[in-house]
Structures are given as structure tokens and as C-alpha cells.
Amino acid sequence: MTTTPETEAHGPVDFVLLEFPMAGLTGRASEELMRLVEQRVIRLFDLLIVMKMEDGNVEVLELTDPGGPAESFSYFAGAQTGILGKEEIAEAADAILPGSLAALIVYENIWAAPFVAAVREGGGELVASTRIPAPDVMAALEALDDAPPVA
Questions:
Q1: What is the pLDDT of residues 40-51, one digit of tens each?
Q2: On the CB side of 133, how many CA atoms lie within 13 Å of its CA?
Q3: What are the domain boundaries of the chain?
């Protein structure tokens, strides 16, 4: 299939807000995010790190600040398309606890693009989509494991 800008298939785009306690930051999350980008599982559009102080003040951190709380994300310093703006930062700040650090991330699931293209080629259209949070899935699976066997 030849793609043009009009027919190019894209994967779903997600926005996530991840909250971390200031104490105990390991950098492992940034390493896994880097792996997903390098393996072309996702395309990173935007990444902002927001810190909410104990007094409620909020600061958007520079990813290139050596020794700063966001330094483990320095690899992504250029990931700013402008999708995330002041409104998203304010909403994130309202959602997180004082004394925490938050990563606001917008990414495309490029692994899904070939499937999207195949659906389009067959005349298919997305009618509905939802995301089930991982804790809900885990709870449902645990409930199934705990259920008595069906006779």
C-alpha cells in the first residue's frame, strides 16, 4: 500500500499523567519510555515534568537541568509539539498531590498503524474505543482466579 499524507495511517494517540513521590525516584520509568521510543512501539509527541511543592506551588521542570529531579528524562528534551499547554499543566497540577512529580506524556501507538491501515483498506471505521485501567483488569482476572470452577 502506498501512503500519502491524506491516507497515512496512524495509531491511537494517548495522554497519560503519571505521578511519582519526590522521594525514591529511580529513573527506571524514563528508561522504559526510551526503550519504547527506540523500538518504535510509540512516537513521543510531548513530555512535560511538573513538580508540585508541599505548599502547592507548581513548577514545570527543565529536562536538561543536570542534577535536577527531571534529569532522568533529559533524553526527551526536544519532545514538545505544543499539544500540552497551560490548561493541561493546570489540570495536572490539580490532580497530583503536593510533594510529587508528574510526567505529562502524549504519544502515538505506532505499533497499531499497520492494523489501522488494514481496517481502512477494508472500509472499516472506528466506532467506539475505551481504555480499561490496568488495576481494573488485574482485579477482574483475580476475581476469575478466585471463582469456584464451573461444573
A1: 999 999 999 999
A2: 5
A3: 13-125
